[in-house]
Amino acid sequence: MKSFNLSVWKRVKIVTTLLLLCFMSYVRGQEPAYSYFYRVYLRDKGDNVAGKYSASDLLSSRALARRQKAGIQVPDFRDLPVYEGYLNQISLLGLKLHTTSKWMNTALFKSQSAFDTKTLLSLPFVSDVKTVKTPGKKNCYSDKLNFKIIQTDLPPFDRPITMINGSSMHDSGYDGKNILIAILDGGFINADYISSLNSLRSRNGIKTTYDFVKKNESVYNSSTHGTAVLSVLAGKIPGQIEGTAPGADFLLLKTEDVESEFPCEEDFWAAGAEFADSSGADIISSSLGYFNFDDSTLNYKISDLDGKTAFVTRAADFAASKGILVVNSAGNERDNLWKRIIFPSDGDSVLAVGAVDADNIISSFSSAGPSSDGRIKPDNVAMGVSIPVQASDNSVGRSNGTSFSCPVLSGMSACLLQAVPRALNNDIIQVLHSSADRYNYPDSLYGYGIPDIVLALTELQNLYIKIPDKGIIASPNPTTGTFEIIFLSLPETFTIEIISMTGKLIFRKDFADYAGRTIIIRELQHREQGLYLLRVKYGSEINVLKIIKLNN
């Protein structure tokens, strides 16, 4: 018996030792907790000069194409990386580098204990230092990024789209295809398996994931907030949820630390925006914002809402200066003490989105403008009350917030960019303003109001398309198989037929509720070289054109 007890004890001891060794190994593999973060502002970029880098060293081909389209110089000073020599000198002082911002020429360092910032300020290449995270939770918001989901069938599931006259865009084939949207959020739990995103995943529409808080590629953790936002953009379940840009591609970027609220998250946001830029994103959709922090001494003031004070706002405007359309939630603060829009929605080049209900009435929570320097904010509003979202595989539910009105407009903006590829980010903002129902009398709650996406499309096409003097034109003609039909007047409902020279009808299609004045036809791509007749019927008109098909 004693021998048995001794044997059992030995086994327990061995197992305990092994478990302890495994635990110690696990702990050694983890980064220690850092309680202090410091944002270091650098005076220059050392010997990093434009001539040292080619454009392709700094940016992807997609990013270069976007810059070229907008006539933006590449590279400029802000494209150059932060000087590594400066970073190394600071690291030798005992601080650990977390991230940098080439646009702001800053570096975010962290420490396990308080660090004397005077040491940093004594360095000749440092212009300023700000403490952007401290230990403790002095003013923590326990509901940060939390949202409620309820089960209801009202209003109709497609009301967010029909409200802005967006159904015609989808019916016309504009679903955001070939547009890259970067979502900056707090996490994407379940986005790797929920049913409404099956189509997105099956076509590999999620191009990249990255967590700028933990510095790894795992984003399917920590929050379902980004998942719900993504479902508004790309979700698809007939009769339950219809994403605003189901054909777009996405970068899922976690920039929000959901466990606390400190200004270092602005640095994470800037890092995410710079990643989106260099990856070639066309749109940043951000349902995040800042104003109060867990350490109240770091809080912003209402007067800071001037578009040039907050770190995150300046980063958002720099993103816009690179040709990216930056769309941000206006905030849910009107029934709270703050009341006003949140940063970076005060940005002068940021499209700030408020929330209305299904009856087009402003929600009680949608943050109020204007900016502190008197600019119209929010820019526009979209449905953000009882909007269909999916955050788990159980079911689609409804939720509230400007977090969800934001992806309604960022998704529809992707459809506009698909329809008019030459359009610039500022063009999109302008037509969303001018097509909205309050354009002539904007205010501090609705901004310019609810946009009409078809009207916005028409205005964009009028800017970039040569309109025929009469009837229709087809271009290019001759064609190798793909050509565009351009209408003098908006057709809305029409029929297209293609007839061979032998009189055989080889293509016919009816279009109802069509958006815009152009349509691309690809039917001749696999047809023989020769002459074809194009017949277009719309209204009381019948237009016939000869199309010359050349070999590829």
What is this entry, summarized?
This protein has helices spanning 2-29, 55-58, 61-70, 84-91, 117-121, 159-162, 167-171, 198-202, 225-234, 264-279, 311-321, 402-419, 425-434, 453-464; strands spanning 36-42, 96-101, 106-111, 126-133, 180-185, 206-211, 236-237, 241-242, 249-254, 283-286, 325-329, 350-356, 380-383, 387-389, 397-399, 472-475, 483-487, 494-500, 505-511, 518-521, 530-538, 541-549. With 552 residues, the chain is α/β, with parallel strands linked by helices.
Tell me what you see in this structure.
This protein is an alpha/beta fold and 552 residues long. The chain has helices at 2-29, 55-58, 61-70, 84-91, 117-121, 159-162, 167-171, 198-202, 225-234, 264-279, 311-321, 402-419, 425-434, 453-464, and strands at 36-42, 96-101, 106-111, 126-133, 180-185, 206-211, 236-237, 241-242, 249-254, 283-286, 325-329, 350-356, 380-383, 387-389, 397-399, 472-475, 483-487, 494-500, 505-511, 518-521, 530-538, 541-549. The chain has a 7-stranded parallel beta sheet, sandwiched between helices. It has a 4-stranded antiparallel beta sheet with strand order 2-3-1-4, with helices on both faces. A hairpin with a 4-residue loop joins strand 2 and strand 3 (106-111). Helix 9 runs parallel beside helix 12 (402-419), helix 10 packs parallel to helix 11 and helix 13 (425-434) packs across helix 14. Mean pLDDT is 93; it is low at 1-29.
